Request: fold
Amino acid sequence: MDPTEKLAPIRKGLLEFVILKIVAGDKVYVADMLKLLGPTEFATQEGTLYPLLSKLRREELVDYEWQESDAGPPRKYYKLTAKGRTQLSTLNDYWKNLNRTLAEFGN
Amino acid sequence: MQKVVSISLNGNSYQLEEPGYEQLRAYLERADSRLKDSPDRAEVMADLEQAISEKCRATLSPHKTVVNTVEVERIISEMGPVESPDGKTADAGAEGATASSGASQGFTPPPRKRLYQIREGAMLSGVCNGIAAYLNVDVTWVRLAFVLLTIFTGVWIVVYLVMMCIVPVAYTAEDRAAAFGMPFNTEELISRAKKNFESFGHQYRWRREWRRQQRHWNRQFRHMNEQLRVATANAAPIASGAGRVISGVLVPIAAIVNAVIFVAFILAIFSLVTQHSIFGWDLPHHMPWWVGIVGLALAYSVIASVLRIARHSSHPGSYHPGWGALYGLLWLGSTVLLFWAAYTFFPGVHELVDQLMWAANLTATTISETIV
Reply:
């Protein structure tokens, strides 16, 4: 059984968490997010990322600002909002709890 | 040499090879239908266009002004399938999150079967072909079903025409693959139909125009009706009495004529199928016999609907009896005229009538013999 296949839904669910973590740092452009995620288990594509970011923005967890680029039209740079920061720390705590629970069950 | 299509993505113009354009169009259309329930639809679509636009720009150089099909395919596979994070799109296996940063993964979720019109090997528009592919049966059966349904209930020709307008045509290889692969998604079809209809309306503004025209006609008709009522009010007792008598006579005649026309229609179809001619009258050159059948079905449904109107209107009580009589007379006159013309000009009809007479005679004799 392919382990990556088994945990695919979990990875998918975690993507939102991962995105919040990424935008928690500096302002990020989507292409850069994709590049960042590319080599990881969370590799994703525009088709998934844009709808997700729009949803997060609607929930006021992230926001974007337009920034001029030297090639082509202005780009959207995403950043975390205050509400997003609270959400992120809640998720972080929960994730730690999950890890602890998993560890308690042994290897 | 390749035909090139100019497109605008978020305000930037690009030139795409035609097959590439079709694929991109299909991709964006699918994305749009996936997002139709999402409140972020417009925004996400703009974002996607923007991303595609950037990817297209990256393929161009001062000496290369066209994005070719292979590049478009690569761009689409890089973009990945569009998923609404609000759920509802969890098609089995269509997960974009696991797409391992390679183009080989492809962007097409495992073939979802969709209803398409397939032009290859189509007789008219490919509707039957598409249905056959969708149901995975031989196209002949679907055509036969359509023809039979059309014969017995004229509305099926309308169903076909409507499907011709709303069912998308499988242009790309990918569409064609989809035409043979998934549980048919009615929602998507309806949304697509709505969209087509909307864009049609936007382009031509014909709907508003049509409604305006209709209102105008309605007004005129009401006005005319009013005048007529006033005019006939005086002569009402006599007129309505006469009208009732005429309608009373016409109703059974209408029923008989209706039956005769139906039998004639069935025989015409039969002769068309067996001899490829309608009672000895050959179809115009190059016209395949099935077109004749469709034509016949159409003619029959028109005649039948006229009959129905005549019958309803001559039904005392539902309309002003004067109107009923008028309609009835008009209808009877035209039917007799048509029949006479057919009898005179088509030897086949002549023969048919003779045969019918003979058959009727035979039946009558048999019945009288059994009774006696």
User: Anything to note?
Assistant: The mean pLDDT of chain A is 86. Residues 82-104 of chain A form the longest helix (23 residues). The radius of gyration of chain A is 16 Å. Strands of chain A lie at 28-29, 62-67, 75-80.
